[in-house]
Amino acid sequence: MLEKQDETVATVARTGFTGWRRFDLWVLLSFLALAVFVMIRLWIDPNGRVLDGNDDDHGIFLFMLAHGERVVFDGASPFFESRLNAPVGVNMMANTAILALSLPLAPVTHFLGAGVSVALVLTLGLAGTAAAWYWLFARHLVRSRPAAVLGALWCGFAPTMISHANGHLNFVNQYLVPLIVWQVLRLREPGRAVRGGIVLGLLIVLQIFINEETLLFIALTLAVFVASYAVLRPQEVREVARRFLAGLGVAAGTSLVLAGYPLWYQFFAPGNYHGQPFKPDEFVTDLLSVAAYPRQAVAGVDSVAERLSVSATEDNTFFGPFGLLMIIVSARMLWRSAAARSAVIAGLVLLVVSMGPQLRVAGVRTSIPLPFALVSHLPVIDLVSVTRFAMVPATIAGILLALAADRVGELTAVRRRWFGIGMALALVPLFPKPLPVVQGDPLPAFLTAGTWKQYVPEGRTLVPVPMPDVTVGRAAQRWATLENLDFAVPRGYFMGPADPPGDDTGSWRAPHRFTSELLTRIQETGRRPELTAADRGKIAEDLAYWRAAVVVLVPQAQNAAVLRATLVDALGESRVVGGVEIWVVGDHPRE
């Protein structure tokens, strides 16, 4: 597979660099156009619309981008954010802070809004991932430009990528993956240990600040690939092992020097956590999803995909019946290659791992045990949503399809025709549809006109009701992030310890308090409680803990009337200011 480099260079020399350059430009523009098509509904109003497939994670990445804006424009710490979950704050390294994306985009976030940055990151992530794979295919792995286009389209716009574009900015930006993979494989070349190791280390550091889960997937996949290749070609591996391992050592040293402190901060600084707020067997790959169509494909059926997937952002396989068939056909065509066989083995291993500790079929968990049960509680592994391991075989499928398409000329005319028909039947039904969006609640003039500044002095917080949380109060977190965290708010949707110091299990929300639980219960049930003097005392204690300066009722909130009545009972009459009702707290006199 890797020996294609010299042949590719010779082909370019024969056909003319200018022609290939023009073709490549059109390919890249096509990737960008397809990415814009997928995200077009969000682009129509990026600060006003929210991705319908996962409005929770849309909100958390608005927070990440707003944090990047604060780092650049306000000098905030890159690893800690004090304006969400006040007064405790958030360990940003223990979250997917995407600092490698949020910091360069800080000017966009500052002047155009975090919503524009979300749309830009998702669009460039899809197109950029396809472009990076196209570079690897066309430059190093295949001789045919159409084969390179085919592989790049799959790797950049496969069902798993379109699915994660529903709010997972970290998983959509995978353009470093082919670069990292290629640099690892090049470590076997003479004289590459130091230079190649340093380059690889720098790429690893960049990937850490985009998404560490992806880096884990790369490491596991390459480990299985190398182990498989060593079994198939032991003599070849022995000849290059010393310089390969030396290069890995240089890469590890480079990345630890540059990322050592951020990683320490992630795992040991305040706000760190261990494990996830769910069990490994809750979010796994369903066996039947491998041959099903995803909900965002033209052939997709929502009801089927919902049964076979954990959420709209986790359609990590969904190759379709003909897609699965052509992946198998491609693997068969390439089976004589030890590299291809090793890639297939790596893909199968990670696919089985993604299915969790017990096999799930058609949404039903069976009693059939799977190997993941043996490693599910290992450190780092216990931080991963298990079904995401299936992103690896999805990418390997694209590699196999590209390599097989590159060899189609070696087939007979009849087999070439059948291969073309099979690829058409595989790819056309998987063509993506634009991602669905919903209109977000408009920001009130109380915020957009800066009126809040009259009520929230430095060191105090604005308490929106419902309070920002993973399941409720999404509008409140969106308010704060679209204002680039200019004011601090309590609670929020982020990852942190459930109830420190006694319980440091990972949680999607701040530790429970009486007032936050009371308001959540009211919003969900619509029932107004009878507050006692003790209840009002607890509410006053919580507002003091949050350093509240003003309480603001979100007008569009579910059961807003009942929430309002409860606030009046606890805090007295409100005042309408800038399109919202507010209650001034503490040493600010009510007007």
Please report the number of helical segments. Answer: 23
Main sheet record? 4 strands, mixed
Overall number of domains: 2
Task: Give the overall average pLDDT.
Answer: 93
Question: Segments where pLDDT lies below 50 for 5+ residues?
Answer: 1-17
Record field, number of beta strands: 12
Terminal CA distance: 75 Å
Any idea what the radius of gyration is? 26 Å
Classify the secondary structure makeup into a structural class.
alpha+beta
Keywords: Membrane, Transmembrane, Transmembrane helix
Transmembrane segments: 23-44, 111-136, 193-210, 216-232, 244-264, 318-335, 342-363, 383-405, 417-435
Protein name: Glycosyl transferase
Organism: Actinoplanes regularis
What does this entry look like structurally?
By secondary structure, this protein is an alpha+beta fold. It has 2 domains: 4-44 and 113-430, no CATH class; 445-584, no CATH class. The protein contains 23 helices and 12 strands. The protein has a 4-stranded mixed sheet with strand order 7-10-12-11, with helices on one face. Strands 1-6 form a two-stranded antiparallel ribbon. Helix 3 (55-74) runs parallel beside helix 20 and helix 11 (193-208) runs parallel beside helix 13 (234-268). The model is unreliable at 1-17 (pLDDT under 50).
